[in-house]
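User: Structure please.
Assistant: Input sequence and predicted structure:
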Amino acid sequence: MDLIQNLTAKYMKPELPAMNVGDTVRVTLRVKEGSRERTQAFEGTIIARKHGGINESITVRRVSYGVGCEKVFPVHSPSIVSVETVRSGRVRRAKLYYLRDRVGKRAKVKGLVK
């Protein structure tokens, strides 16, 4: 196991923000279109975190114009420029798949009480 950890350690991102399920995050990624390259942001609620180490991924969901859109981002991917936490949420579950069936105010996650 040490051999695998040593090989993957150089590909992992050293600094990641504290992000949990229920938080609203803005994921900025590099998009390549032909010969040009640009950055694009995707902002939404984390509904799932899976795996660990180099294989860690987050599922981010947002609703735009009444249509839900989910994307799975490998956290340590070189195409991801940054992940920043916009708002923290208070949830009691590890996976928020029930948000897929909710619309409007019912689909919101409560904010963190300080």
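The chain has a mean pLDDT of 94.
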